[in-house]
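Q: I have two molecules that I believe assemble together. Could you output structure tokens for the complex as a whole instead of separate predictions?
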Amino acid sequence: MADNKKISVAVIKRLPRYYRYLGDLLNVGIVRISSKELSEKMNITASQIRQDLNNFGGFGQRGYGYNVEFLYNEIKKILGIGKEYKMIVVGAGNIGQALVNYTDFESNGFKIVGIFDVNPRLIGMTIRGIEVYDADKMEAFIKNNEIDIAILTIPKTQAKATAKKLVECGIKGIWNFSPMDLELPKSIAVENVHLTDGLMTLIYKTNAVLDK
Amino acid sequence: MADNKKISVAVIKRLPRYYRYLGDLLNVGIVRISSKELSEKMNITASQIRQDLNNFGGFGQRGYGYNVEFLYNEIKKILGIGKEYKMIVVGAGNIGQALVNYTDFESNGFKIVGIFDVNPRLIGMTIRGIEVYDADKMEAFIKNNEIDIAILTIPKTQAKATAKKLVECGIKGIWNFSPMDLELPKSIAVENVHLTDGLMTLIYKTNAVLDK
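A: Yes, here they are, computed for all two components at once.
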């Protein structure tokens, strides 16, 4: 695996999309593809594709294009997909439940093994066979089950304190759906999903389209 | 409102975040802020902030900083927030239900007024007082209720055909949670949310942190 340290966040954010498109090509039996063809499918420029993939040593051959399976597997390795990651969901509300029910994660090796909440009405129920535990038990559970990732779907007011506790328990990555940015030590990976931000961007785009 | 046409997508995607931070500052009574202070709060450089806001004519004064309320209101206008947008959710599954229950949208003027599904077990039920209608009725509903935005939370296999139908009905913006990119006419605004892509980015970051 190449030295990751200088790869920009923008490139990294595009890799799952390459992975998804290449997976679709593999599924329909396509063996190789040029950056031009891939560019038309993905709606980004061929030069951007070549530049992105050059970050990881290229993998393309002039006049031949990319070997789909090889490229797919390389990106898979780069992303670190292919082994199992254990996740917990913290917050068994609507978003938390929807994520537990989202089976696409598991097919990629991302397995939700526990759900935590403070609400007595939710504790003890199971979602897709996974039990909702009392938040008090979270710390021991993380340590005993070697949890990699915590998915945070709790209200804004509790997000900061809970994230702090997760870090203390040794969690290395937090997928944050709470509507606030988390300030955490640099040793913790965080990916924020701000649903309302996405909707506002769409509203802007919709108005921009209408203005034309 | 400034001419939007040359503003990069990256800048636009950051505007909701500015809006969120400025709203928080307003809520705690802060009247003005320098780009340096804002930069420390938001964890982006002061020069990036000045550059971003210059796209819209600046709003800052040297030695004074930004007037929080003024900047908040300007970004609000730029994004097109402040009036009511009517939305429908297409797909009353887990993600669809979670989005209907996500009250943060409504407090920003984004109002879900109808939900559609093909599943007879879901049709007729109400979620937060909003009825799930038969997908057959979608076309008439969009026209009669002047719907602005459709939130698509249906399986990949049906996403393309449904998006096409939405466009024919006159929808101007689609917020797509289906795990595929939509190819639509340039006159339609689309914002894709690929949950698994976000999780893969987090996995990459987590491994990158561990490699250090």
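A: One point stands out. Chain A has a mean pLDDT of 90.
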